[in-house]
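Forum: Protein Structure Q&A
Topic: Joint prediction for protein chains with partners

I've read a bunch of threads here and the consensus seems to be that you should model interacting components together rather than docking separate models afterwards. I'd like to see that in practice. Below is the full input, 716 residues plus whatever partners are listed. Could one of the regulars post the assembled result?
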Amino acid sequence: MNDNTERNLALSHMSVAFIAFLLACIMGVYQVLERSGLFSSLDSPSVYFASVSTHGVLMAYVLTTFFIMGFGYYTASTTLKMPVWNPKLAWGGFWLALFGVVLAAIPLLTGLASVLYTFYPPVQAHYLFYLGATLLIVGSWVWCGIMLMMFYQWKKENPDELVPLAMFATAANALLWLWTSAGVAFESLFLIIPWSLGWVDTIDPGLARTLFSWTLHPIVYFWLIPAYTAFYVFVPKQAGSFLFSEEAARAAFLVLVVFSLPIGFHHLYMDPEQAKGWKMLHGIGTFVVTIPTFLTGFTVIASLEIAGRLRGGKGLLGWIGSLQWTNTMVLSVILSLLMLIFGGFGGLVNASYAMNAMVHNTAWVPGHFHLIFAGTTVIMYFAIAYYLWPILTKKPLISNNMALVQLWTWFIGICILTTPWHVLGLLGQPRRISSVVYNNLLTLSWQPYELAMIFGGLIMMGSGGLFVYVLYKTQFNPSAEVFEGSVEYAEPLHKPTDLPEYLNDFKLWNKVIAVLMAVSFGIPILQFFFMDTYDSSAWGY
Amino acid sequence: MHIDPLEKQWVQVVVGVCALFVGIIMIDALFHGVNAPSNVETIDSAKLHLSEEFGEQNLGVSTDENGHITVRMVAGRYSFFPKNIVVPAETPITFRWVSIDVLHGVHVPMTNMSTMIVPGFVAELLTTFPKPGDYPVLCNEYCGLGHDHMWSRIDVIEKEQWSTQQNRATGETES
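Posted by a regular:
Agreed with the consensus. Here's the joint model:
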């Protein structure tokens, strides 16, 4: 099959993602330096908050969305062995999303959108920022449509077969993203854009926060699913083994999609506009959504254990040493799981309704999500990129050793950056401050941790730079040597037979999601219409 | 469909662990009243100065006839008002927070005195400071370019010292 279009789509999307990533890394280093207060020449809240806003948007929205779209197009065409449906539309989505990013970048970089990537109103940015962000989402909906179209076309042509696992996960993610992005899209279209354009003077911050919380949790699973996809479909093969259980993999993806949606109120535990019963309900759902992650850990580690034993590892833990640590995919999954263990522990603390009060909006929170996003998730983006780049560019990876050094340094950098961040949170430091000016003895205990974070940030920037360098050198290698490999997906240990249709389709789950969303968000959203709520004042920001 | 016996056991363990955590949280919430601040009480942020409760003369610490202490605070860019209050340790205190402008958050480090302050709502919570000391009150939600400077102070004093002061104050009014 001639897959030039698919390779081009994948490369273009991922290149945008990684350029955004590199820019955001540089901003990250500036931020740790500025925040430490050691360099008075850097101190500037206006530059700092413009930088934090841009860093968040680039990492959380641009890196992720473009990476996921590019990875999805290539996964769909290689697993289903069919060309991308309507490539012109796919390119349309790409350019629309990119146009949105450029539009949002103008106010971001000129300090007119220093509202951070969560843009909680009534702090207001220039309307181009909200329009740009909305266009990015609309562009990504094109991708969702194409993924689901291909999923159902293939099912129609192969009615008695199982959709390959990689495509099942990708289509699940597309469905998840459609549901997820609806919350922020409502907020943007009905509240924020009319208000930022000056059509209305005031906005209801409680309703805006409630709608944003709809998006705020499942969006992290949208980012995480490609990492889990790589865990299940690439890792076992690269480790020289089999996927321990395909049934468990499918179940894990389904529970992730269904239960990550109706639980957003754990971001609102400390908010006065929602009642405790709803918070508890969402809190219970939050614990349910840890189950697929525990299951994923089990299945992936079991697959790795088989690999280690096949390679001659003996004893209870001997198989770990005999894994192929020099394979970028294998090394990444080991480091990713290590970070997942610690990050998951922190996540359980955050999820604990009431205990959350001790860490809410403290430095613990960015510590947590850098560990689990920049750590667990992004290290798998690296692994996927190292694996796909030679296939997409038809040039061999310039240096496996450089890639290994890059992965190790990223892991070390994350540990040095996020451990102090967690401690700072427990010591009461708020997140989202540009400098410490509180006249209180408590702040003295924060200083050594601020210092440590600088080293973490510097190591991560070096590592991020090395990552982009390796990809760049691979792609633009003048040598005529051609890389012939193609994507290989892992085989399950037991070929799944007689799977019920609900493990091969989303129609039922879509209905389940609709019911759960109606139950968990229906009244909490409607209350703003039957209660006497007041908008924020029309002045003062 | 193939499910490995080990896998089945693992799922049981995981579900058990999650159920245990949820159970503990629920028992604390339902029987011991350990809840997040969730009173869903609306107020017009633009007219706080006209409201009885959050008029300037009523801000800060007040004690009702039963001796229960309520602290009423207003958050606005960039401080909490009143800027310095004194409360006793080891005494339940109700805090009521409102915002006059944008979204704020407030946390007294090392304590569970933590809540978001959303314009249009009163955020209420009940807490007890176990130890006396000089506690900073920090804004922990980004509220604008001066966010770093948004903080105030709570002096938590010994319970006995508080009662002496209270008695003296009441004594003065009576005489």
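Chain B has one domain: 41-174.
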